[in-house]
Each structure stands twice: as C-alpha cells, then as structure tokens.
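Title: Comparing notes on inverse folding

I've been comparing how different people in this forum approach sequence design from structure. To keep things fair, I'm posting one structure and asking everyone to reply with a full sequence. Here's the target:
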C-alpha cells in the first residue's frame, strides 16, 4: 500500500512537471526572430527554438508532434513574449510567419514605391530605385525596350519577409500585374501602350467614373494629332531628371523631354506611374465622346469640353472660385 502511494505521488509529481514544462509560459520578453528553412526536421526546429530561448525544453516540443501532428511551416517567426510550448507549436503549424506589410496605392511611380519600401523598413530607397531601373527583364514580355519596371508594379497590399530582396519584391509585384492583366484580357503588343494610357488616366483624375471619359479625351486628341498636354507627364519628366520641386515651372513645359506632352505629340515613351484596375479598364474601354479638353472644378470633379472656348470658360470659372 505504501509503495502504491509512493508511486502515485511520483506519477502526480511527474505529471505536474510535464504539465509545467508544456503549459507554463516561457520565452523572450524582447523581440526574437527564428528562421526555419524549408526541410528542417522537427528535432532541429526544437533545438533552434530552445537555443533562441523561445522554449524551455526541446523534448517537450518534439512531444507536441505526437499530439498535434501536422506539418510545421518554414519561414521567419517573431517571438516577443513568453508562451507555452503548445502555443509555439500551433503557431508554426499555422505558418504564422513574420512579415512586413507594404502598401502600394494606385498611381505610385517608381520613386514613390522606393520611398514606401524604405518607410516600411524593407530596404533603402536608392537600392530599390536602382533595382527598378536595372531589372527590366521582368517586364520585357510586355515592353522589350523598357528602361524601368514603371507601370508594371501592380498597386496592392503586399507582405514580405524582413530579408526580401528588391528583386524578389519587384518580381512579386510584376507577377501580380500579369495576373490582373490576364483577368482584364490584356495581351500582345498593345499591353505597353495600354499601360502608358492608363498611367496618364490614373494621375489625371481620382474619380473612377471619370476615368473612361478622360481616356476618351486622350484618344480623341491622339486621333487628331493634338498634344495631350497632361501635367503629370511633365512632372514625371522632372522627376526623372531629379529636378522636381513640387511645382511645374514654365521652363518644364518647354523642356525637350520625350515625356513633355506639351511639346511632343502622341503618348510618352513609357508609363508615368503604376495604374490600378479602374485606370486600366478605362484605357481598354475609353468612353466615346466629342470632348477634347478637361479641367478640375472647384469641388474636385472634372469639367469636360468639346471646344476650346468652352474649356477656357471652365478654366476661368475655376480660377475665380479659387482666388
């Protein structure tokens, strides 16, 4: 009887110890990262976690495999507070890896994207901008003469690991463009031209309902051989030169840049930003009108005109309300 009681006490103590090891929170109070490479065994994962101070016992983690089963996902994990072995195991089974969110809004150009990458802590602006101009092979299927990946970095919310390279990020964005282009029915040699048109539409107006009308205005002007006279393209020319100050000066309207749509008829030689779905749809399906001009009104909407006289009236009205 006494022996039985001793054994019972030992079992209870053992269970208590096991329960403590498995259930009691343990781990870092400061930010700690653990990188699990693909193909790493459960035993080696347990050792990495123990060495990093994330878990108390590697054996306890291995035991979790018997109870939970499943597959542990590779990737980088972030730990910043104590947790039970079971919680850690379940996180890795879900693949709850650490990522940094990068938001690319519609209309961002390569300079804006580089700024966003640096602001997110994913790399330096200059390094990313250099990659954007060097890795044109990513977009050669649509534009063999491209001087950058401008226009093909699809606006979206992305999640990248801390160590993602510029090329990896660019590849992901370009692939997303390819998927969306396919859904929109974009293909063949017209894609580059459609993206250029969409980039102009994207930067000119902010209301999706107005985008097809603006695309129609540009189509009408191109058909008549009229210069597009779009300010965003002039701004982009200054950004490429590194002289943009935030205001368009008269000298910039007279520059010899191929992106200056005041002095050069036709579309600019490449996109001026990365357009979103609404602008791409507008470029694919411009609205048929007799409009040749447009200007913003005092409320931020757009006034369209078929004649120069009507357009000048809208401009005068806009200036009078904004004195």
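Reply #1:
Here's my take.
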């Amino acid at each position: 009887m006494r022996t039985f009681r001793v054994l019972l006490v030992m079992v209870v103590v053992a269970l208590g110890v096991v329960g403590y090891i498995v259930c009691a929170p343990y781990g870092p109070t400061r930010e700690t990262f653990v990188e699990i490479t693909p193909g790493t065994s459960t035993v080696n994962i347990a050792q990495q976690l123990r060495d990093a101070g994330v878990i108390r016992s590697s054996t306890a983690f291995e035991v979790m495999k018997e109870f939970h089963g499943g597959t542990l996902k590779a990737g980088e994990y972030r730990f910043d507070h104590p947790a039970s072995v079971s919680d850690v195991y379940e996180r890795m089974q879900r693949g709850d890896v650490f990522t940094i969110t990068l938001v690319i809004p519609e209309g961002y150009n390569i300079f804006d994207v580089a700024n966003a990458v640096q602001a997110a802590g994913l790399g330096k602006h200059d390094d990313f901008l250099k990659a954007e101009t060097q890795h044109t092979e990513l977009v050669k299927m649509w534009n063999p003469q491209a001087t950058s990946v401008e226009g093909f970095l699809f606006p979206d919310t992305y999640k990248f690991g801390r160590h993602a390279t510029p090329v990896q990020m660019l590849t992901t964005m370009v692939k997303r463009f390819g998927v969306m282009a396919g859904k929109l029915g974009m293909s063949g040699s017209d894609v580059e031209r459609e993206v250029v048109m969409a980039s102009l539409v994207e930067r000119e107006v902010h209301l999706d309902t107005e985008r097809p009308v603006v695309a129609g205005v540009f189509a009408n002007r191109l058909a008549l051989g009229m210069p597009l006279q779009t300010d965003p393209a002039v701004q982009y020319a200054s950004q490429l030169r590194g002289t943009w100050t935030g205001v368009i000066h008269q000298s910039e309207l007279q520059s010899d840049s191929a992106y200056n749509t005041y002095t050069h008829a036709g579309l600019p030689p490449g996109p001026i930003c990365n357009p979103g779905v609404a602008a791409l749809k507008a470029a694919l399906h411009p609205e048929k009108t007799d409009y040749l001009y447009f200007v913003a009104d005092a409320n931020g909407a757009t006034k369209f005109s078929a004649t120069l006289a009507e357009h000048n009236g809208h401009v005068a009205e806009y200036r009078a309300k904004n004195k």
